[in-house]
Design a protein that fits this description.
The chain has 271 residues and is of the alpha+beta class. The chain is 16% helix and 44% strand.
Length: 271
């Protein structure tokens, strides 16, 4: 379990949020799935923004957007920490990013922008003030991993290294290209290549993983509350994982560590 109340180092995945047209539906879904409680936070545009918490510690944001005829499917957005929003935006644009949401203040909480990286994945930047980012990671209901997947992971790695100075560790294998990135010596996320057979079926994206005590239980809860299964649960070297969708169609992953039990088998961790 980890509690972190200080600003995150630049380049660290610092804040996940989701904007939907049915805020009550989303809040009910994630309260059932992750046990989140919610508190309203001021929003500069007059909409409602909820801070989700785990045992009183900030875990994510869920806000509402006005419906429109051309609105895309809602998705979770990961915001990477920055100490200077304008400088980082300039660096990102110089490295090939496109600004999707211009830099804006979020009241006393901080400031943000949303961009599209050169390979097409959407991400945000968060410059913290009162809201330093997530207060809790790596325990049930909290963010535990983030990764960006695309068809050109070489270009993605070059971009994020240029903007944030990421250093990489290669975990690739036959038919599998994947590297973790580190910030100030701490592993902070991953950059990988989508499978060749995903061409046309999967767009470049950032995927956020949330920790749960039991992946299969989480799948059942999600489906029972209006969600769906994008990829059925599977065991990896790093734990048991499933990719789910929320009631608005947003995609995210759930993860439980695997531990070796007394008989030598593997069982999901409970924290």
């Amino acid at each position: 379990m980890t509690t972190h109340r200080e600003p995150w180092p630049p380049g660290t995945p610092a804040w996940p949020d989701l904007m939907v047209t049915d805020l009550a539906q989303a809040a009910d879904f994630y309260a059932a799935l992750f046990g989140w409680t919610f508190e309203s936070a001021p929003a500069p545009d007059g909409t409602t923004y909820l801070i989700a918490s785990v045992d009183g510690r900030n875990a994510a944001g869920v806000g509402d957007v006005l419906p429109g005829p051309d609105d895309p499917t809602p998705e979770w957005t990961i915001y990477l920490a920055t100490a200077d929003l304008d400088v980082t935006v300039d660096a990102a644009v110089h490295a090939g990013a496109t600004v999707l949401v211009p830099p804006m203040d979020a009241g006393d909480a901080g400031a943000l922008t949303v961009l599209v990286d050169p390979v097409g994945a959407v991400f945000g930047l968060w410059m913290s003030a009162a809201l330093t980012g997530v207060d809790v990671v790596d325990e049930p209901g909290a963010m535990t991993w983030c990764e960006t997947m695309s068809h050109d992971d070489d270009a993605a790695r070059d971009f994020y290294a240029a903007v944030f100075g990421y250093r990489y560790t290669d975990l690739s294998g036959p038919g599998f290209s994947y590297r973790t990135f580190s910030v100030e010596g701490r592993t902070a996320g991953g950059i990988g290549r989508l499978p060749a057979d995903a061409v046309g079926d999967a767009e470049p994206h950032w995927l956020i993983y949330f920790a749960v005590p039991d992946v299969d239980d989480a799948v059942a809860i999600a489906v029972g509350h209006g969600g769906g299964v994008v990829r059925e649960p599977w065991d990896s070297a790093f734990g048991r994982i499933a990719v789910l969708s929320g009631p608005a169609g947003e995609t995210f992953a759930v993860h439980a560590r695997l531990e070796v039990d007394a008989a030598g088998g593997q069982a999901p961790a409970t924290a």
